[in-house]
Amino acid sequence: MTDRRNVDAGWQKLGTSLTHAGRAKAPEAGTYVNLPVERGSTVLFPSIQSMNRKGLERYDHTSIYGAMGSPTQHELEKLIAQIEGGTDCQIVSSGLAACTTPLLAFLKAGDHCLLVDSIYGPTRRFAENMLRRFGVDISYFPPCASRAEVEEYVQPNTRIIFTESPGSHTFEVQDIPMLADVAHSHGARLFLDNTWGFGIFAPFEHGVDVSIQALTKYPSGHSDVIAGAVTVADQASWHILRDASIQLGQLAGPDDCWLTLRGLRTMGVRLAQQARTALHIATWLHERPEVAQVLHPALPDCPGHTYWKRDFTGAGSLFGVVLNTTYTRQNMEHMINAMRLFGIGASWGGYESLVLPTTGGITRNFGSDQPDAPAFRLQIGLENTQDLIDDLEQAFNALHHTTT
After folding, report:
1. Model confidence over 271-293: pLDDT tens digits?
2. Burial tier of 289 (Cβ tally within 10 Å: 0-12, 13-18, 19+)
3. Residue 298: which of 217, 286, 289, 371 has the closest Cα?
4. Could you tell me which residues carry N6-(pyridoxal phosphate)lysine (predicted)?
């Protein structure tokens, strides 16, 4: 039943680059291994001419003024771009800002934006409220749509197709090369929220134009940072994105950037362990009589599994669980409340395990092939695998008590 591919292979390959990139290239005697945190607003110049010349270097990840990014931010941008395989990266204030900033940069009144129906909820909210108010037309396509079906939703004024693969609540994996080809054949760009696939999916090798990251998740890894990243495939797109980011005042504080750089040093080994544990637990859950479906991309019955197998070099720590239809939402909530090691909370990608109900919190324009039953998602942390299974076991016992 389980795909036996090594889900941690991609994470392990990142070890060397994560350890050495984004650091001083030729350290002098007495240099610390970590870059210092550099805080500041004002940058001083020896002359007006020097200041004017530096002002022309806004695309070069250099210090001009504090609101245009710190040296710590610029080093993080270089490292994220290297991991994603893009030309340049803009660090922004949050994962949501990483979704909204490029939309504002590349869209104008009269344009059409086509989003996957499984898109991150706050991105949908921004599109429905802010973008519509600015005169942008918004529509959606089913996450498992074929090429012919996607083509039906493209309009003459479509400028962006925005997808997320896998969806962070329902976990459908998209055919990204197909979507890129559709977008490009109609003169549009493909945006991808690649947060789940960071480090194990190469967006630009598969035709993506703009890749979006919530650095809050895997890169920082310790549930203490709010930051995002937008990486692009070419210089023309970089100039558009960078100008918009400056005009919007988008950046992240140097302390958050430094914490993310620190988190990235251990991301490979953290996620290798978390990926192994997550697949082990997902496989265990798949055999539970209480469970109707486990939405883990590495399992063959997850929607889009064949695309995961073709395009990804590993798997993440986040997946979904759908209970049988015999259980109610109240039963599920009682089960979740009984968990001891899984904290109840949003976000994911940190060192700790989390659980979050997904039933009732998802807006969709199209139906789903998933069972109409209570569902939740699990973020698997660094706890002992058997301890987490034992916690789930006793939570299932609590579930049984609510139905007897």
Report:
1. 999 999 999 999 999 999 999 99
2. exposed
3. 286
4. 217
Crossing angle between the packed helical segments 254-265 and 267-286, to the nearest 10 degrees: 70
**Could you give the number of structural domains in the chain?**
2
Output the domain CATH number for residue 370: 3.90.1150.10
Three-state SS at 215: coil
List the CATH number of the domain containing 207. 3.40.640.10
- Domain, as residue range, for 157: 31-262
Q: What is the pLDDT of residues 382-397, one digit of tens each?
A: 999 999 999 999 999 9
Q: Give residue 141's pLDDT.
A: 97
pTM here? 0.95
DSSP state of 300: T
Quick one: which of 208, 214, 227, 198 has its CA closest to 163?
208
List of residues 6+ apart from 318 with CB closer than 8 A? 168, 196, 278, 348, 349, 377, 378, 379, 380
Q: Let me know whether 331 and 361 are in one domain.
A: yes
Tokens of 47: 């002359």
* Pair (46, 172) in one structural domain: yes
Q: Using an 8 Å Cβ cutoff, are 151 and 112 in contact?
A: no
pLDDT-derived band at 24 (thresholds 50, 70, 90) equals low
Tell me if 13 is assigned to some domain.
no
Q: Which of 166, 191, 132 is nearest to 348 (CA)?
A: 166
Is residue 169 situated within a structural domain?
Answer: yes
Query: Are 257 and 301 within one domain?
Result: no
Residue 8, domain member (yes or no): no
**CA 214 vs CA 3, 81, 157, 347, 348: distances in Å:** 27, 14, 29, 10, 10
Which tokens is 92 given?
């922004």
